[in-house]
Amino acid sequence: MSTTTVLVLARVVNRLGGAGMAFLGVRLTRDLGAPLATTATLLAVFGAATIPSRVLGGMVTTRWGPRAALVGGLAAAGLAQAVVGLGGSLAVVGVGVVLLGLAYEVVEPATQTAVVVGVDPARRASRFSLLWACVSVAGVVAGGVAALVTQWGVGALFVVDAATSLLAALLVLVLLPALPVRRVPRVWRAALGGRVLGWAALCTVPCTVVMAVVLLLPVALEQQGHHPSLTALLLAAGAASALATQRALARWELHLPAGAVLAVGYGLLAAALGVWALGTLPALVVGAALEGAAGSLFVGTQQAVASRLAPPGAEAAVMTVQGLAWGVATVIAPLAGGALLAHGPHVLWLAGAAVAVALAAGHARPPAPVRRWATPRRA
Predict the structure, then answer these.
(1) Number of separate domains in the chain
(2) What is the reported pTM?
(3) CA-angle at 102, arms to 96 and 103, nearest 5°
(4) Cβ neighbours of residue 135 under 8 Å, at least 6 residues apart?
(5) Which are the contacts of 132, defined by CB distance < 8 A and separation ≥ 6?
(6) Which residues neighbour 252 within 8 Å (Cβ) at sequence distance 6 or greater?
(7) 33-69: per-residue pLDDT in tens?
(8) Which residues contact 152 (CB under 8 A, 6 or more apart)?
(9) Could you tell me if residue 218 is inside a domain?
C-alpha cells in the first residue's frame, strides 16, 4: 500500500468523526452550563493552542519521523476528545479542550512531510490535492454522522470523534512504513529563511479568503434568507468538484508549471466568489463547484512549491512554517470577513474575488522559486 493511500485512508477515517468541532461551543454552553464569555475564552484558547501544536508536530516529525508524529498526534487528539465527550464538569472538559488544541495540528506537518519524502517530487501537487479533496468529501459525510450521533447527545459525538482518531492512529502504526529521517544541523534556520517565510506570507492571503468562506458562508447564506441545509449542499458540490479536479491535476501536472496551476486556481476562486455575489440558488451551487475546483488546484500546489524550498532533512520544518499560513488566516479571516459581511454578503464575496484576481494576475508570471519545480540547492 502506497504512502499516499495510507495517508488518505487514515485522514479520511479521522475526518469522518470530525464534525464534533462545530459542536464544541454547544458542549460547553448547553451541556455544562458555561457562560457565553467562558465558552468564548475556551474556544479562543483552543484556537491559540493550535499554533504551537503545528510547531510541535514539526519538531516531532523532524526528530522521529512522520509516522511517530502521526500516531502520537492522532492518539493524543483521541484521548483529548474522549475527555471532552465524557467529562462531567466544566473544569475537566476545559482541560480537554486545551489538550485538544495542543494535539489538533500535530498531524499536519507529519502528513505533508510523509508526502514530500514518500512521493515523486513531480507528483506532489496532485498528492497534496488528493488529501485535500478526500478530506473534504469525508467532511460532508461527517455531517451525516453528526446528525445521527447527536441524537444521543453532543458528548457522544466527541466519543465517536475520539474513536475515529484512535482508529486512524492504529492504521498509520500498522500500514505506514517508517519513512527515512535525515537529521541535519540548524534545520529550523533553513525553514526561517527569506524564501520560505516569503512564500508562507504569500500563501496566507488565499488561505485567508478560504477561511472566510469556511467560517462565514453559513452566516452569509442566512443573511440572504436561504435555509441552513443549503450549506451542506454547497459543501457537497464543492467536495465533488475538488475530487474531480484532483484527477485532472494528476494528469496534467507534469506538463504545467506551478505558476500556471496557481493562476488558474486563483482565477477559478475569483469566478466562484463573483458568482456567489449574485445570491441566487443556481449561482451558489455553480460557485461552490468552482470554489471546490479552485482549492484542489492551489492548496496542493502551494504545498508542493514549499516542499521544493526545503533542503534535504529540513522538509518537516519548512512544511511547518508554510502551514502556519492557515493558523494566521484563521485569525484574520473572521475579523476582516466579518467587517465586510456587515455590509452585505455581496461585499464579502466581491472583495474576496478582487483579492483572487490579483493573486491570479501575480502568478501568471511567477518568480523563479514559484515557477521552478526542481529542488533548489542546499542553502
Answers:
(1) 2
(2) 0.84
(3) 85
(4) 11, 12, 15
(5) 242, 246, 295, 296, 299, 300
(6) none
(7) 888 788 878 888 888 888 899 999 999 999 899 999 9
(8) none
(9) yes
